Amino acid sequence: MTDPTDPAGENEAKRLEAGRLLFAKECQFVAGAATEDMLPELDLTEVAFAGRSNVGKSSLVNALTNRNTLARTSNTPGRTQQINFFNLGDQLHLVDLPGHGYAKASKQKIGIWTELVNNYLRGRSTLRRVLLLIDARHGLKVTDREVMDMLDVAAVSYQIILTKVDKSNQSDVKSLTQKIEAELAKRPAAHPETMLTSSVKGIGIEALRAELASLAEEVG
């Protein structure tokens, strides 16, 4: 429990409250872009959710915003086939990206998604950070590192978010986190802290809200 007499604890309490207030605001779908020319011109800070198909991007967006159906979820990998933009209280845009690494889609469709996402990530001036979601049961894969390489080259800040941590034992999650953070220390655009989450259990949701609220405040 936070000690109110402790300055560090008091600051953390303020961060958590700022996150709670931000994500209590109305969150609305703004636009969906299936091609680069459909990308909307927006002036709010953007935070993008990226990751392999079925890693839990839509579930995490729903958990953060306390809405069950804001971002469509599915047990079928590759369901999100466009970039979806959501306006959170006129302070922040949440951007749900198509999953990468889904091998069962046609090569043509995978190529279109990959080009769309990469062009968005490289050229979006309002993009403040990419949250790269990694399933805690599987760790980093080749496709994840390809995205990280591209973001490093483009100098786009990104942060690793472990999902589904409730489905792995604590020691495995701790070991995975240490390995990932050791790798991140060698990557120029990576945020040093890995965050642990579970959309089902609510683990890490408050802390992630606070982190995203701080990004909105830095810019606006």
UniProtKB/TrEMBL annotation:
PROSITE patterns: G_ENGB. Its cofactor is Mg(2+). The keyword GTP-binding applies. The keyword Magnesium applies. Residues 43-218 form the EngB-type G domain. It comes from the Bacteria. Transmembrane segments: none annotated. Pfam families: MMR_HSR1 (PF01926). Necessary for normal cell division and for the maintenance of normal septation. This is Probable GTP-binding protein EngB. The lineage of its organism: Bacteria, Pseudomonadati, Pseudomonadota, Alphaproteobacteria, Sneathiellales. The gene is engB.
